[in-house]
Design a protein that fits this description.
Strand order of the largest sheet: 1-2-3-4-5-7-6
Number of helices: 4
Order of helices and strands: EHHEEEHEHEE
Largest sheet: 7 strands, mixed
Strand content: 35-45%
Structural class: alpha+beta
Radius of gyration: 15 Å
Distance between the termini: 16 Å
Length: 154
Amino acid sequence: MSLRPAVLSDTADLSRLHTASFDDGWTHDDFATWLSRVEAMAVIGGEREAVAFGLALAAGADAELLTIATDPDGRRAGWGRQIFHALDAEALNRGLERWVLEVARNNLPAIGLYKSAGFVEIGVRKAYYRTRDGRVDALVMSRKVGPVSGHKGA
């Protein structure tokens, strides 16, 4: 699996992957804004074309995972886990202490990935995400940055 830092010239690919993964996909301009921030940590993966990416921000001592998205044809191949490994290594390198994220309660594949990487639920944001069918709660999850014993992955 080939991974590298995402850069501004990747924004069209990031938008394509995000839109294929989420009802309310982010635009090229959204990603240009995120990637231009010094706090941003972004990784893109793929051999010939972009298949997956992840985006996080440094916020004080926290690393906030904003999104991980994988092309539908590339799912269940380990891209999400590898993307998170790379982001976790960057967060550790920056001296960050804790990961935090929100994930839609109905996004079972993502919840499975996060739990397997050592994340635990610390809260719920009611009706946080807009979907085609209305709204869905977000689970707020957290774990320490760096290796977590007893868990597969980072």
